[in-house]
Amino acid sequence: MMNAADWPNSGPRLAGARSRLRAFRSGIAGKPIGGGLLALALLSGCAARGEIDRFSTVRDVAPREAFVLPAAGGPSIVGVLEQRFSNGVEQEIVLSGGGGAAGQNRMRVQFIGPVDASTSGRTALSERSLARADIAGELRQEFPGVAMRRSALYVQNRYGPFGYATGQVGGTTCLYAWQRLSGTDHATLILRPRGIINLRLRQCEAGASEAQLLATLYGLGVNAFLNHFSWMPYGDPPSPSPTLGQGGAPVYPEPLLPASASVASAAPVSEPAPPPRARRAAPRPAPQATPRLQLAPPAAPEPLPQPVGPPVPPPPGVTSLDAAGGSAPLVPAPPGTASTAATLARPVVAPPAICADGRLMGASGC
Fold it and tell me: Counting runs of H as helices and runs of E as strands, what totals does the chain give?
């Protein structure tokens, strides 16, 4: 290690450093202890390293961390942008699709309630209820130049009622829906349950119907909550049916088959079916001539087989008529005999019956 004597011109410098150190120590010793601690805090603060921060409070989070998720088979989540406020957190969930309309399919979800003050923003979200003027302004902002028709029907999903409007952009159907879930805002207790969830859905699909777009809103599921004892944006849970456990009110199981299958309903009919209306008898058409059936001609009997063997002269006194009354065919005379009129006038005997196997038929048959 180098000494002070080996370092040229180091003597005056070391002496000045020692004198300043003694003056600093004497000054600290002459002041109260609080001043020393403040000086040490300032020195440690100057020595600490600063962390990089951004001016924007918007953060990109994973799709699985979305506050609200579509149902299986619905539009997929492309990305999620999250922004924190002094009284809640807002997420913009970008969905797939869009059709030919300008803009992108998305959901805007706001969780308003008791949030962590150390990680919250400076601005606050609006906690007032929805107004018709607010919805009209949102429709003009989301669909400029498009005639959006608000539905007058009462609809609700698993979380409560909601409203929606539809419109057409060329061959693309667009839907804009809004819903607000709030607890007991009228309560005056300090430890009252509170919390608000605001939901907006903007979805456009080419060739889709209104029912198909509404299916997205019916299948949504809330995937997050604020970890606080007073968080309750859904209100009081519904009470069970008053007929539960009572006599005369049967409860039937739900069918396990899909809705497309034809399943006979086991529930009894509460009201009798109205009697059928009397209908006037329709005039009968003029009778038309029905074509008569043409009977097929009787089949001709098959000819008997020709006699086999030499002709046998009939016995004397026997006519040529058989027992059935039919005339037997004449048997030609054997060759070499004279064909006289007496020979032709003589009766002939019917040929013998031949069996199927070629034998002569006897008195008892074949």
Answer: 5, 11
Q: What angle do CA 150, 155, 160 make, to 5 degrees?
A: 120
Burial of 29 (0-12, 13-18, 19+ CB in 10 A): exposed
Whole-number Cα distances in Å, 102 to 135, 173, 174: 19, 12, 11
How many CB atoms neighbour CB 40 within 10 A? 11
Q: Please, are residues 121 and 84 in contact by the beta-carbon 8 Å criterion? A: yes
For residue 182, tell me if it sits in a domain: yes
Q: Is residue 234 part of a domain?
A: no
Please give the full DSSP string across 336-355, using - where no structure is assigned.
TS---HHHHHS--PPPPPB-
* CA atoms within a 13 Å half-sphere pointing along the CA-CB vector of 9: 0
Task: Answer with the residue of higher pLDDT: 273 or 329.
Answer: 273
Q: What is the pLDDT of residues 251-308, one digit of tens each?
A: 888 665 554 444 444 444 455 566 666 566 556 666 565 556 566 666 666 677 777 7
Structural domains in the chain (count): 1
Q: How far apart are CA 177 and CA 175, in angstroms?
A: 6
Q: Which domain holds residue 107?
A: 58-222
